[in-house]
Design goal:
about 120 residues; elongated; about 60% strand; four-stranded antiparallel β-sheet; 11 strands; seven-stranded mixed β-sheet
Length: about 120
């Protein structure tokens, strides 16, 4: 099992910045990919950014050049630096960890943190 605890988020004006952090505990040695997803009201959850345990990153087109994901494998943390925020970035952001165990992948989720960008 993996437990994820998020921090950060809040209210910011358009053009501002926020940083989200997520700390993993439990069976962290078998985590492969960590990432952030978001869900806005009335919309499906979407991928924001992911990072593998060797540092390969993937971003949604809508956040490329504005958001940066980073990971500290020693501390089992993943962070999302969000710059040049737009009102359309408003959503609940959730941390995800994918664990590989006996040839199967298991997904774990944090509780989510609200990000609100005012215009």
């Amino acid at each position: 099992q993996v437990q994820l605890v998020e921090s950060g988020g809040g209210l910011v004006q358009a053009g501002g910045s926020l940083r989200l952090s997520c700390a993993a505990s439990g069976s962290t040695s078998s985590i492969t990919v960590m990432g952030w997803y978001r869900q806005a009201p009335g919309k499906q959850r979407e991928l924001v950014a992911t990072i593998t345990n060797i540092g390969s990153t993937n971003y949604a087109d809508s956040v490329k050049g504005r958001f940066t994901i980073s990971r500290d494998n020693a501390k089992n943390t993943v962070s999302l630096q969000m710059n040049s925020l737009k009102p359309e970035d408003t959503a609940v952001y959730s941390c995800n960890a994918r664990r590989r165990w006996l040839a199967f992948d298991y997904d774990y989720w944090g509780q989510g943190t609200q990000v609100t960008v005012s215009s």
